[in-house]
Write a structure and sequence with these properties.
By secondary structure, the chain is α+β, with helices and mostly antiparallel strands. It has helices spanning 6-15, 54-63, 69-77, 82-91, and strands spanning 4-5, 18-20, 28-34, 37-45, 51-52. The chain has one domain (4-91). Helices cover 40% and strands 24% of the residues. It has a 3-stranded antiparallel sheet, with helices on one face. Strands 1-5 form a two-stranded antiparallel ribbon. The protein starts with a strand and ends in a 6-residue tail after the last helix.
Length: 97
């Protein structure tokens, strides 16, 4: 996984259906929402981190339930749509339709 700016990662998450969770304030939590329902897929960011290195991007990849780095890169580079991401989660048994 390549190094990415925190604000860029967060923009992609919001674009793909994640919403900030205001109930948690010691980290920036993002939860996936589908049809108005909060899903178990979530990730978080520490305050003050401006960039996420390869190691931290690997953790986010796992939190977002990607099995392959190539798919995670496609998600963050935007060729993968929200619909394609949700379909991947369904196929992998991470969420139910």
């Amino acid at each position: 996984m390549k190094v990415r700016k925190t604000k860029d990662i967060q923009k992609v998450l919001v674009k793909k259906g994640f919403v900030p969770d205001p109930e948690i304030d010691h980290h920036h939590f993002y939860c996936l929402m589908i049809d108005g329902k909060k899903q178990a897929i979530k990730t978080y960011f520490s305050h003050g981190k401006k960039e996420y290195d390869k190691s931290l991007m690997g953790l986010i990849k796992n939190q977002l339930k990607f099995k392959e780095s190539e798919k995670a890169e496609a998600f963050f580079d935007c060729p993968m749509s929200k619909e394609q991401y949700v379909e991947m989660l369904i196929e992998n048994g991470e969420i139910k339709k």
